[in-house]
Every structure is written in structure tokens, then in C-alpha cells.
Amino acid sequence: MAEQIEGRVSSAVDAWLRWLPRWHIGTARGRTRPCRVCLGSPVATAAGFDHDVPHAVQHALLNRMRQIVDDDVDEYTARNLPLVTRELRLAEAQEARGYRPEQGLDPEFQGLDLDPEPEPGQPFLFTLAGLAGMPPDDGLVPPDPSVAGGEPAGPITEPDVGAASFDIDDLDGWLLPPDSATPVDALPPDAPDPVTRSEHQPEPEPAPRAESEPEPEYSDEAKAALRHEITLAGDHAEAVGTSLCLALVQHRPRIAEAIDRLVAPQVDELLAELSRALEQPRSR
């Protein structure tokens, strides 16, 4: 594993060195909160970064290092930890469920109107009340063939890019004020008459929705096994992080040379410009 991590770290440092000449201190922007990736990171210490290195320069390298750890842990989890893999897929399915504006409201918001009063001539592209009237999305995620026991849900077809693309100008004439009804002459020529359809044609029955997967119930033995797999995943992530830091230390001379050549002159120039712009203190 150490040799594989060393190769990935070397490739990531090479990519960072190719990016660094394109960075300019004028592209920096202020932050309102500390960066969770860079603050107190042992990877920054292994790279030899100090407090004088701009955050954008540090973050570009540390984010590549974090991606190496995440990819390795994901591969290890999918290969050796089936219970953790199943929990991750259930979490993805839960996040994929459609937004339900009428659910999860705090008590002080329950009973209030979801949408503001419509303004004449100001159309709504969508309303929360309209979203609440839509059928819920079960958010089912197809099984992963790479996981043991997983079977693909069906034949994989290429997406129809031409059918999915549209021009925003095609919406001209279809945006209506929220307080106006849809006129019949605004419908496409090939659309059926809504009055005729309601009188002579029955409404199509909605397609049956797939039942969502029930919430799993675990026994004490299953919970203990899941905790054990989570511990194994944490231990593996720590081992990968240690190997990554040891491999990154070997690239300190390259990183320091690039900082001194490309970053330090920009910082010195910015400080010199700032000192020239400051006013001299008034003498009493």
C-alpha cells in the first residue's frame, strides 16, 4: 500500500506544481470561517507549509491529498466492509428523496402559507405549494454491481442528450402570472383540448410507484459488527494518512523551491504596496 500511496502523492505534487505558476495573489479572496481542510492539518506540516503561505496555495495541495485518502478508503470499504457499504448506500438514497416543503417545518412555521402573495405581472417559475402537490420521489438508488450480491437494475442506456437540451427562448410565452389561468390558445397545436379530454377521455391512471426500502432493524450482534467495520475503516484511513504524510515529506524540497520562486515574490510585492498606501502617523 505504501508504494501505491507514494505514486499517487508524487502525481498529485506534480499536478500542483503545474498549477502553481497560474496562481496569482490577486485572485485571493477573504474567508469568513476557518478552512476545515487546512486548519491544523498534519498534511500541511508534512508539506512544510507555514503561516506565511497563502491559504489558496495550501488548499490546492491539501485538497489533492485528501482526495487520495478518500479514494483509498472508499476502495477498501467497498471491497472489505459490506455493512458500511450498505449504510452508505442507504444514506445516499435518503438524500436523493425529493424535497417536501410541507414536511420538517419547525413549530413556529407550521400553519403559515408556503408562498407569498402573488404580484400582478410577476410570474412564478415554481411554487412551494406546487411542489407539495407533486408525488413524492422515493429516491431509490439502484444496487451497486461492485458490491457483493448487487445486480444492475437493468440494461444501461446512453442518455438522450438531444432530448434533454433545450433553449431558454423556447419558454417565451409560457411564463404566466401566478394569478392567471392557462389560456387554451397558449397550448401547443398538437395538445388535446382540456375540456374535450375531461368529457370524453378518462384520466390516465398513475403508474404504480416502487415501494421504498424499509428502514433496517439491527440486532445487537449486527450493531456490534457494524461498529467493528466502522472502526476498521477509521484505522485504515489513519494508516493511509500516515503513509501519505511520510511520502509527502520527501517532496518538501520541491514544494519549498516552488513557494520561494513563485509565491514569496507576490507576497512581498503586496506587502510593499500596502506599506506605501498606509498614511504616516500624525506628529503632535
Feature tags:
mainly alpha; 48% helix; 0% strand
Write the layout of secondary structure elements.
Elements: H1 2-19, H2 42-47, H3 55-80, H4 82-95, H5 128-133, H6 161-164, H7 194-200, H8 220-249, H9 252-277
Describe the structure.
The protein is mainly alpha-helical. The chain has helices spanning 2-19, 42-47, 55-80, 82-95, 128-133, 161-164, 194-200, 220-249, 252-277. Helices cover 48% and strands 0% of the residues.
Short description:
Helices cover 48% and strands 0% of the residues. With 284 residues, it is an all-alpha fold.
Q: Please identify the structural class as seen in this structure.
A: mainly alpha
Alpha-carbon Rg, integer: 29 Å
Arithmetic mean of pLDDT: 74
* DSSP helix fraction: 40-55%
Distance between the terminal alpha carbons, to the nearest Å?
A: 68 Å
What general form does the structure show?
A: flat
Q: State the low-pLDDT regions, or none.
A: 147-178, 180-184, 194-198
The total strand number stands at 0
Q: Spell the H/E element sequence.
A: HHHHHHHHH
Count the DSSP helices.
Answer: 9
Beta content comes to under 5%
Major β-sheet profile: none
